[in-house]
Amino acid sequence: MDWFSASTNNYEPTALIEYLGLDISSFVHTYGRYFYADRLTYGGVSVYYNLRANDTENGSVLLEMSAQGCRQFETSSNMGFMQLFCDVINGDLKPTRLDIAYDDIDHDGSGLLDIGKVARYTLHQRFVTKWGGGIVMDKFKKNGNYEPMTHALTIQFGSKKSKILLRIYDKAQERGGFDYHWIRSELQFNGERAAGFIKNLLESQSEVGELYSGVLKNYLRFIKNDHTRKERCTTVGWWEQFLNNAEKIKIFSPKTVDYNLARVKNYVINQAGNSIDTYIKCVGTEKLISELKERKSKLNENQIRVIDEYRASQTDNDLH
């Protein structure tokens, strides 16, 4: 994970930090952004609050993890992204952005992706894509008065307004000109596409890299000129090799997901069951129930609906 952000109305700022398994004393207060007045931040993890909007939205809190923040979360918390993603699916967090990066690093050779070749194929429109097209950018900087410039090529498909954005760039040159091959291919999922990727990841039980490759292949293929119709052209071997011959995967919106008691049970028993069992054996059932009642997070709309439906079904059974 190279970036993650999500909004929530179910946590106060400090409660969200505690929920993430991070030390609240490590966070410092500073000015906010994105129309939020305040921010608590630590090591690339930021929690924004006090939204400058109408009163009905003032309870909104935004969690944002930069690349550094993702590493900080992975090393400082025992929670992990998979558990965090489960809570996204359960409705506690609404994802706004998710970046998945694949690093093609080769200290002794040329790696899987030739950035120059990717740029040439893009400029000559040797590709089939769901995006409108691609652009090639050459970022450069001077290392000194008598030093050569470093050039960092970037190929981009989509825009910041797209539901999915792809960036392929020369990370070695961006960092100042490392003497080894380092190309990064990064997919940025926005809004419902971020939620769709997370849902697919959990339900398919795929590896992140496998799902990443399948989604990327569904959106982009670099091709040979072996047919008059582009969509029937063969994918070039170097792109297939980079994607590890993955099958196309379409990610979908989670709007059609039916959140019900069976889904709650599956999460509690199969995904969080071992952690719950461990905690009960350490502190006992009574303490667990007591701490659940005292927790700062609130039930979301889906969870309240499941409770109401269950209670109504029990009442109907009693009547019969």
Write the topology of this structure.
Elements: E1 3-8, H1 13-19, E2 28-31, E3 36-42, E4 45-51, E5 61-65, H2 67-76, H3 81-89, E6 94-106, H4 115-123, E7 127-129, E8 134-142, E9 149-157, E10 164-170, H5 171-174, E11 181-190, H6 192-204, H7 208-219, E12 220-222, H8 237-242, H9 261-271, H10 273-283, H11 285-294, H12 301-319
Antiparallel strand pairs: 1-5, 1-6, 2-3, 3-4, 4-5, 6-11, 7-12, 8-9, 9-10, 10-11
Averaged pLDDT: 86
Number of strands: 12
Strand order of the largest sheet: 2-3-4-5-1-6-11-10-9-8
Give helix and strand order, one letter per element, not per position. EHEEEEHHEHEEEEHEHHEHHHHH
Per DSSP, the total helix count is: 12
Biggest sheet overview = 10 strands, antiparallel
* Beta-strand fraction estimate: 25-35%
Q: Shape, please?
A: globular
Distance between the termini: 52 Å
User: What Rg is obtained from the alpha carbons, in whole angstroms?
Assistant: 23 Å
Structure classification: alpha+beta
Q: What percent of residues adopt helix (DSSP H or I)?
A: 25-40%
**Weakly predicted, low-confidence segments:** none
What does this structure look like?
It contains twelve helices and twelve strands. With 320 residues, the chain is an alpha+beta fold. It has a ten-stranded antiparallel beta sheet with strand order 2-3-4-5-1-6-11-10-9-8. A two-stranded antiparallel sheet has the order 7-12. β2 and β3 form a beta hairpin. The longest helix has 19 residues, at 301-319. The radius of gyration is 23 Å and the shape is globular. The mean pLDDT is 86.
In short:
The chain contains 12 helices and 12 strands.
